[in-house]
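ok so i was messing around last nite and threw this chain in just to see what happens. nothing serious, just curious
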Amino acid sequence: MSHHPDRQDAAHAALRRVRREGRWWWLQAWHTRKIWRWAALVAVLVFALLVLARRPLANWFWNEPQVEQLLDRGDRALAAGRLSAADGSGAREWYQAALALDGDRTQARTGLVRTAQAALQQARDALAAGDPDAAQRALALARELQVPQRDADAVARLLREHQQNGAGFGVLLGRAEAALQAQRLDGSDDSALPLFQQALALAPNHLRALEGREDALSDLLQKAREAAARGDVAQSSAVLQRARGFDAGHVDLPASEAALNTALEHRQRQGQAALTRQRWEAAGSDFQAVLAVRPDDPAAQQGLQRVIDALLAAATRQAADFRFGPAEQALETAQSLGASDRALVAARQAMAQARQAERALNTPAATPARRERSLARLLENFADAESRGDFLAPPGRSAYDALREAQALAPRDARVRAAAQRLLPATRACFEDRLRENRVQAAGACLEAWQTLAPGADAIGPARQRLAQRWLAIGSERLGRGDVEFARTALQAAKALGSSAASADHQALQQRLNDIDASR
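result:
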């Protein structure tokens, strides 16, 4: 058999290729799968990009025609001279709407600039036509659209000149100066300050008008200082407020405000002194005057509340003594000072009970049995209040008030005297406890009840001195923390309790307060 070398070589080459391809088939398959993985990853990224960017793309495709439509409407409104309209159909509104959709649109910004220039021209045309109101509106629109300041000021100057000529500026200024001469400073349209304001609205830099307003304000602020010196802080504050409305930077304002502050501090001190001396109406008037100017002043609020509480307690005590006239007056004063409805109801109930007791006492037909029932009821009320620990408060339901009614009904009854003897140690203990707690005001109330039950007791005098010393000690300590008003109150309370002006503590506190007053 014959062999053909060429065919054999071709066969061997084919055999080698088959073997080679059979050996590396897995590598080719791996390359094919890798290409598909990359293709899948690219597809996922493209899909995510489309999802995330769908709104910007949609906005671009949809907003573009809408912006063009808004710009076209703005151009038509500008051409028609309709620069701004409340219903949104003016050129300004259309251009602003276009900018809201596409903040980079140059045509919209240019449209607003053209609208501003058109508004300025409308102002000039309105002045030429003798319509200052229309010119004022057009100028305001031009300023809102940020027309160049120099151009706007030029038109504004023309507008003021037109208004001066049309409104009779000289006549207006003459009326203002005449009102100033007559000292009709403010309070009506034809007084000096409102007229000067009108003149300055027409000519802001007019020298005579500026000087006239300055003189009128100086005179008005002088009246504010005079009212402060009289203690009329409400009037002084009202005048100051009106003066600020005309010129908040007037040179006399700081001195006038300082005078008002001094007057307020003086009224505060007067109120505290009247409170210490139990002059309730005077104290209430002073605290109310301070609160009319400074509604949130804590010292005045506290002082006024103490006055109200004292008046309600006084009304209850006077009613228990059958002194209904003074009791009603104290109740009315407390109500006028702002006593709460709840406190007023309690005081009126106590007064009604006292009236019943008086009728029972003075009724000719009242039998001993009836008086005995009334007395038993009062003694029962006394025992209930005593068991609750309500020795001195609340007014009308305390053991002290029940005892006073019982004493009025049967002052010599052994049970009444026994009740008084039981209450007396309670009032003394109340005084000692409150003094130990440094609650000097509460201790003073307990001392008052103690003194009422035992007016001639030997221990009353030393107790008053101890309370006075405690007032001075606490006042000195509070003064060291900067509470000047409390220190003044403490000194007045110590004086009312009989503190000697020659005592070392009294003199020391007085000197410190004098030093503070001298440094102000």
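not much to say yet. The longest helix spans residues 25-52.
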